[in-house]
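pinned: reference chain
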Amino acid sequence: MDNTRLLRPHGPAHTPRRALVVLLLAALATSAGAAEPHAAPAPHAAAAAQRAAPAERAQSHDAASPVDAARPGGRAETAAPRAAAGREAPAEREAATGERAQAAGTLRGGALTVEALRERLLERARQRGVDAETAPSRSVRATERVPAYRPRVAAAPEAPPAAVGHASALARPSSSLLLSSAPPAFAHAPGGSPAHGNAAAPAALATRAALPGSIGQGADVHWSYDGAGGPTHWGALRPEFATCAQGSRQSPIDIRDGIKVDLEPVRFDYRPGAFRVVDNGHTVQVDVAPGNSIEVLGRRFDLLQFHFHRPSEERIDGRQYDMVVHLVHKDLDGRLAVVAVLLERGGPHTAIQHVWNNLPLEKGDAVAARDLLDPAALLPADRRYYTYMGSLTTPPCSEGVLWMVLKTPQAISAEQIGIFARLYPMNARPLQQASSRLIKESN
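pinned: its structure tokens
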């Protein structure tokens, strides 16, 4: 701290106070002289202070006011000239600087320098128990305290409570992702739908907990094949299921009165590959590795998965079969094509037995088989078919699906039917109105 500030002139009214301060400094120097043998005697400092006081008062009166200078021997008659007298002109500031230099020289020439005086003042403050770092400035009156600076920190805005609907939507994934969540190795193009080829397939259904929207989870009624979640209620369960009740091209239908034409053969490009078996809570589904496809109507559709229904959802001229397998495909534009292979009681089916051998022990589980499976083994030798435009047979019942139902059924043993029936005794949607749809069949 620069103690020479105490000697800085601030106008005539402060001159006696400065003299008192100089005397106080001299007294402090006198008391400090007893502890320092080399210090000059205190009277010298007091005398210097006494000599400086009249000179300082005289100089302050001489430079007090331009108004007084303009009136020889007179004084300011109003408060305004006296206030103006306190303002220092450049020449006056130079004079004040000279005064401060002279006063500092007086202290140095006397018993104690300003720096030594500062050290003494700090020592006395410490002896009184005052923290020298936090003590108020000497330029402030003793009765004043400078409040410590405390920056104002703006409180962070309180986050609004999450909407209950949004939270429940995040906690309970849509059941439209339920039926065919393929593992990363079996990922296909995005899109699709539940039982008939959801190609979104973000993760494998490795445990029961991984089964989103499974029966008994959440407060809403999950879709099923009977009861409150049965087919007659699908359209009312969720807004995205509305097509199940309002659609005009729904599946399955009773295939009859088809137009016999020379249909383009379906070109199957199936090959052996890795697969896994998923019990998704609605059927047994088999996810296959990429590389299997069909070509029809000038388009290529990739095989995503196949699954089973009991009894068959489709009927041919009113006849219903023991089971059916649906092979779900998708093209690059997201359009779906389903090949249906009817199954009737007979001898055992080797490929289906291969699937049953890898059945998961729990619903929602998935089992990755160690060997390979050729989807072509599911197809009959005679591949003539019926075709029409329909929909998915499970929610959300999306329309615009190309259906190809092979005319020749495949055999499946009673034991193999029984194995599936223990898991799903009935998982077939009832027939839907044909609504004058055009049905074509191969000659």
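why pinned: The first helix runs from residue 15 to 33. DSSP finds eleven helices and 16 strands in the chain.
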